[in-house]
Write a structure and sequence with these properties.
Helix content is 0%, strand content 46%. It has no helices and nine strands.
Length: 110
């Protein structure tokens, strides 16, 4: 996928959905936050370290177990889920193309 390098504002986990904070650093996004998701981190990094964020394209994570063709959503604390949340901020992260690969195309639904 298309990745851009940001600075981690805090510890960010691999495969987490992140947002750009007011200082320009990235932090975990959550479905109760109004700041838009920018993408998914490629790997875990401590605060102040450079981290690659996939902003569009394919991302594979062997920990995933999604149903191909289903939408994947922003959960809490940067988690990616295939269960559409009922939170105030509903963000579709993308679509599962295989059980462990998603196509990232962030779209805020509500």
């Amino acid at each position: 996928g298309h990745a851009t390098t940001f600075t981690a504002g805090l510890l960010v986990n691999s495969g987490a959905a992140v947002k750009v904070a007011a200082d320009g650093d990235v932090e975990h996004a959550t479905n109760t936050d109004e700041i838009p998701v920018i993408g998914i981190t490629e790997d875990s990094k401590p605060g102040t370290a450079p981290v690659k964020v996939i902003v569009n394209g394919y991302y594979k994570n062997t920990a995933y177990s999604f149903t191909p063709g289903n939408a994947v959503w922003l959960g809490t604390g940067g988690a990616i889920t295939d269960v559409k949340p009922t939170a105030t901020q509903v963000v579709q992260i993308g679509i599962a193309v295989t059980a462990d690969t998603i196509y990232i195309n962030v779209n805020r639904v509500a």
